[in-house]
Amino acid sequence: MADFQKVTVLGAGVLGSQIAFQTAYKGFDVTSYDINQKALDAAAKRYDDLVETYKNEVPGAADGAADEARKRITLTDDLAKAADADLIIEAVPEVLELKQDTYRKLNELAPKETIFATNSSSLLPSDLESSTGRPDRFLALHFANRVWQFNTAEIMGTKDTDPAVYDKVVQFASDIGMVPIQIHKEKAGYVLNSLLIPFLNAALELAAGGYAEPEDVDKTWRIATGAPLGPFQIYDVVGLMTPYNILMNGDQGNRHLGAWLKQNYIDKGKLGMASGEGFYTYPKSDQSA
Ligand code: NAD
């Protein structure tokens, strides 16, 4: 076991709530921080929904373990209280200045030994390290959406990360039931998104170009490779807004694909599994997280 007693997760949105819940589910006391009462109320609802999701989807969770996990999570909007931890996992919105500002404030409040880890999907840890005030105790710990099911944790330091800190975080990832994926040097997109984004774009090109229906693209991928999900099923799990935002920041070809996604799906309220419909429709019980 990593020698962490107190773990804080900053930001209790989609990913922050999942990381906090999974950490609590594996027996840690977790402080879940968000900015105000309204955000905390939304977080409390997310945790209640996660209790039900775990009961439905995680073997053994219905025998009291999911309810116990919920009790190990303390919600707060007091950053000083949140900063009192051995490990702080940051899952605040993907905005560089907001993350930097958060780290500056946190560095003032947290003990010197506290390790900071970012869950950022698209920023490199070296974009953030100077604002942490502790480059040797800072790295990326990147989870995938639906952490209880898609349980990779990609661990990526900067050239300044202390190897002992890196190893502790690898151990922690394992302690909370993740499969740690060690990345040896900084790479935008880590392993997962370096593979996934070109794959998802290629699928979109087939559908937007009128070559094949999304269902048939998925069917081809599943049958021919044995993969459980096709690319459009993955879009629905991720939610369509994140890929859309990435496409609209890309070149002209990417923006064309983004516009197609918007016109045919997003503008019709088809945002993916969480909204009940994306490329496929979902019964209410599938729509958690
Ligand atoms: P989200 O918008 O669902 O949640 C962000 C939360 O942060 C909100 O609850 C918001 O109130 C809170 N917040 C806003 N300002 C804050 C501040 N100053 N301090 C603390 N909390 C603040 O976002 P998300 O999808 O959970 O993404 C969070 C991070 O996780 C991002 O860096 C993103 O790249 C990363 N990530 C997301 C996914 C995904 O599939 N959604 C997957 C992997 C990684």
TrEMBL record:
<feature type="site" description="Important for catalytic activity">
    <location>
        <position position="142"/>
    </location>
</feature>
<keyword id="KW-0560">Oxidoreductase</keyword>
<dbReference type="InterPro" id="IPR052242">
    <property type="entry name" value="Mito_3-hydroxyacyl-CoA_DH"/>
</dbReference>
<dbReference type="InterPro" id="IPR022694">
    <property type="entry name" value="3-OHacyl-CoA_DH"/>
</dbReference>
<dbReference type="InterPro" id="IPR013328">
    <property type="entry name" value="6PGD_dom2"/>
</dbReference>
<dbReference type="InterPro" id="IPR006176">
    <property type="entry name" value="3-OHacyl-CoA_DH_NAD-bd"/>
</dbReference>
<keyword id="KW-0276">Fatty acid metabolism</keyword>
<dbReference type="Pfam" id="PF02737">
    <property type="entry name" value="3HCDH_N"/>
</dbReference>
<keyword id="KW-0520">NAD</keyword>
<dbReference type="InterPro" id="IPR006108">
    <property type="entry name" value="3HC_DH_C"/>
</dbReference>
<dbReference type="InterPro" id="IPR036291">
    <property type="entry name" value="NAD(P)-bd_dom_sf"/>
</dbReference>
<protein>
    <submittedName>
        <fullName>3-hydroxybutyryl-CoA dehydrogenase</fullName>
    </submittedName>
</protein>
<dbReference type="Pfam" id="PF00725">
    <property type="entry name" value="3HCDH"/>
</dbReference>
<comment type="pathway">
    <text>Lipid metabolism; butanoate metabolism.</text>
</comment>
<feature type="domain" description="3-hydroxyacyl-CoA dehydrogenase C-terminal">
    <location>
        <begin position="189"/>
        <end position="282"/>
    </location>
</feature>
<comment type="pathway">
    <text>Lipid metabolism; fatty acid beta-oxidation.</text>
</comment>
<keyword id="KW-0443">Lipid metabolism</keyword>
<dbReference type="GO" id="GO:0006635">
    <property type="term" value="P:fatty acid beta-oxidation"/>
</dbReference>
<dbReference type="GO" id="GO:0003857">
    <property type="term" value="F:(3S)-3-hydroxyacyl-CoA dehydrogenase (NAD+) activity"/>
</dbReference>
<dbReference type="InterPro" id="IPR008927">
    <property type="entry name" value="6-PGluconate_DH-like_C_sf"/>
</dbReference>
<feature type="domain" description="3-hydroxyacyl-CoA dehydrogenase NAD binding">
    <location>
        <begin position="6"/>
        <end position="185"/>
    </location>
</feature>
<dbReference type="GO" id="GO:0070403">
    <property type="term" value="F:NAD+ binding"/>
</dbReference>
